[in-house]
Amino acid sequence: MKRPRALGGISRILAGSAAGQGLVLLAYPVLARLYDPTDFGVLVVFTSVVAMVGVLSTLSLEAAVLIPADDREAATVAWASLVSVAVTAVVTALVGLAFGPAIAAFLGVPVLAELWWLVALTVLALGVYLVMSEWMVRVRRYGALATRNLLQGVGQVTAQIGLGVAGVRPAGLLVGLGVGRLLGTGGSISRGGLLRQPRPRPAELVAAVRRYRRFPLVASWSKLLNTAGLQVPLLVVSAAYGEVGAGLLGLTVRVVGGPVAVIGQAVYQVFTGEASARVRGPGTGLAPFTRTAVLRLLATGAVPAVLLILLSPSVFGFVFGPEWTGSGQFAQILAIAYLAEFAVTPISQTLFILERQGVQLIWDASRLVLTAGGVGLCWVLGAPIITAVAVLAAAHVVSYGTLYVLSMRAAKGSDRAAEAAP
Questions:
Q1: Most CB atoms within 10 A, among 166, 189, 201, 308?
Q2: Rounded to the nearest 10 degrees, how much is the dihedral formed by the CA atoms of 67, 71, 76, 79?
């Protein structure tokens, strides 16, 4: 990724991400004392439900925003996705009214039934956030993405600490997520933002959905399975080992997985913008570009992974308090899995860009079976939670290695087709 535009884009996004996510990380020692492991257990379940419903809300049409050569057509696709988000949020609220208590009890967090209105609002915020992000990636508004990442961190931390001090537990943790996502949509009104594009007519929205129907019909379910592969194991942990076990694992996911996801997202956004430009334009080089990105990410993440393995239990106990030492042990076990996620996730959009949704769907389903199935088997066999986390880590490593092989195969096929074209 030696191209100046790509490096500049990554540096700008990372600057905003580092500032915003730095605030979030600095806040966790405070949050760990304002909220107990049970509160974090509710947050784990809430986040998992919102993530799965939120990613389905867009019908994956936001991924198709990168494809059209014409900006007006791309904007129409984005608006179609936003309509789907609004409808999904309303349906989520209605489901909560009818089945909220039963769902919350099944997931082991009865208090969630009283907070279901937050689920619907956060689904709306997350869906809008996803669509706006892809539009900014398309137009390469990396500075706007950096500002967005900063505002997201500021909003989340301010809400969670303020409400925690006021004794609003566990709702303060949940509200903070929605506030952060809401502030993260600000780039939509920046120069070149989606809201500055012409509004499409209903017939154009229908035509856009018809043209990119493989995204709702195939890719949306693939993305749901992708998210489920990360979130369902956490739900199984909550159901099997209780709110405290889920809360300990939840802190690990946020303290370690949060920075991994944010930095990976920054690289992912720039990689996606540059890779899609290569596919739309003449020439080849997608496969070397993809391989180089993964190798450099592996080299970058290797040192933090080793430090996690060596130091995380003692560091977690010192920074967050003795009751959180178990989170450090989980971080120690998951270190290699997070390294694999860090290196491979940024290139995962390759299959979508090349319209290989079927391959992505198969991979997503396989990972869900490995991760959730492994944790579920540990539950059935009566294994301790530490064993379940180790099985989860191994499943993720195998899954991300497979995704790299599939992405490289697709990229090489695209390069060969470009070379053969007249």
A1: 308
A2: 90
